[in-house]
Amino acid sequence: MTPDIIVALVLTLAVLIGGVRLLLWHRAAGALASPVRTSLLLLLQPIAAGLLYMALFPPDAADGVSSLRIATANTSRLSAAASGSPLILLPEAHAISGGEAVPDLATALRRHPGVTSLTIVGDGLGPRDIDAARGLAVHFDPPPLHPGIRHLAPPPVVAPGARFTVGVTLAGLPNATTELVDPAGRVTDSGTPDKNGHVLLAGTARAAGTTAFTLRVRRDKRLIEQADVPVWVADNARPKLLILAGAPGAEVKTLRRWAIDAGYDVTTQMSAGGGIALGDAPVALDAASLRRFDAAIVDDRSWSGARGVLLAGARGGMGLVLRPGGPIDGATRSQWQALGFSFSGPGGVAPLALPKVDAEAVASTRQGIGSEEVPVDIATTDDYLPDISRLGLTPGGYDAVPLLRDAGGATLGAWRALGAGRVALFTGIDSYGLTLTGRRDLYGDWWSALLDTVARPVPGSRVLTDTGWVGERMTLCGLTGKAQVDGRVRVLPVNGCGGYWPTQAGWHMLRSKDAASAFYVQPADALPTMRAARDRQAMALLSAAEVQQASAALPGQSGTPWIWWLGWLGVSALLWWLERSRLGRHSAPAKTLQSAM
């Protein structure tokens, strides 16, 4: 029950009680009571109660306007010139004659309290005004998006030397070419969008710290749009990786070398037969030892002897990657199927289709940081592709998620949940050949995808990947207490989230008592198509079915209460005087007075 209803009920009860009291007094007074005086008292009491209610809850000072046209960014003067409802100009709109300029939508609604519907013209309402429109009937016919970058998905935290992927969606550019350029001005990857406008571009992180790559969109060799791609390279705690192999070989050596360069703390165990073990210091394969590792890569020969303890470790949260060293026997196939994977195919070994080689300039950039064994100057593509095979069985399953595919569409890797951890199956055989013929980038892509998917998360820095613009409110979430941006601006969270209005583009650091997060702010004029697409999506979420009644005024829309207070004061004073005056009272007869004496 609302306060106005409660007050109305209380005042009604008071008037009824007062009226009953007056009628009882009139009946007891008999000839001494004046009917005119009693009638005036009965009439003035509900009038006083009504004026008191209107003073406490004054009606809207409505101006007769029930609909407004709201001009937002990129509103054309032709569409805004149409006659109809009053035109409201938000700060993003151009100056249009006849429009009323306001700082935000909430101000316009306060000036026009009777509004129940809005007609949005232009690109749509932004985050500043979207909440003010809730509860009103919103009519919005979105204009076509301008050709450009519709969505940009920067990578999360990247380890030094690791590869990352940037997701891009283009609008209205089917034949465009996208390029990812590193801070040194070298093209790290390029691609063309699919029929839906999606394209993935890859890059390689260098030293730890904050940096920004550049995304360029070209059509017919003409630059259409470019934008910054923020990349946060953090030297976090090194994940612990266990590599188990049934015999030493080139695959284990190459995998160990790559994992160390990718930032893993690697422990290798290889069996040489006869009870002889090669590699690092021996590790006891028990539950306590496996809890120290975040992921394990195990071949089919080591799997059979440690299956139970490895499954227990995976159920405890450790990531597990299974790989074949060649054709697998029936027992191993049954055991892997028992994990939830299904297999299709003839078995044995099948050829693996590799993607085409990149252009020489892009390929040399994508090689990343070289090593002593494979320096950058010799890690280039040759005219031939390496002979890489795969298991002749394609992994699948009801709840298995495909992770890797070759150029022919065959599934190379899949994963599924197992207890608190994840287990993945990789069917590539002798993938080390990629590193010998200039395809270290593809080798790193495969194993990075496998380990990033199944490895146990390690604590470290966090990056907020939501895109923000200068001069526009950002919502920063995940806060457990008071926080500061760049050590200067305090953020007071409500339900774990706080608002921040950036004034400078670039990297910013959000620090709280327990954690620190980095986020990037785009310039105010960057990514206009992406901004318009975001506003269009937010507009689509507004319900056009809920129409707020004009009487349910927003805060600050009520009319002035002073006239009602003055009326109530006058009627109350008249009641007070009438009840205490002798006006209308009849004098008692003299006989009655003498008999009383």
Describe the structure.
The two termini are about 60 Å apart. This protein is about 30% helix and about 30% strand. Helix 1 runs antiparallel to helix 2 (about 35-55) and helix 2 (about 35-55) runs antiparallel to helix 14 (about 560-580). The protein contains 15 helices and 32 strands. It has about 600 residues and is an alpha/beta fold. The strands form eight sheets. The chain has an eight-stranded mixed β-sheet, with helices on both faces. A five-stranded parallel β-sheet has the order 3-2-1-4-5, with no helix packed on it. Strands 26-32-31-28-29 form a five-stranded mixed β-sheet, with no helix packed on it. Strand 1, helix 3 (about 75-80) and strand 2 (about 85-90) form a beta-alpha-beta unit.
Strand order of the largest sheet: 15-14-13-16-17-24-23-22
Whole-number mean pLDDT: 81
Helix coverage percent: 25-40%
Query: In terms of per-residue confidence, which ranges show pLDDT below 50 for 5 or more consecutive residues?
Result: 377-383, 544-557, 590-597
Largest sheet: 8 strands, mixed
Class from helix and strand fractions: alpha/beta
| Count of individual helical segments | 15
Tell me the Rg in angstroms.
Answer: 38 Å
N/C terminus separation: 58 Å
Shape: elongated
Number of strands: 32
Strand content: 25-35%
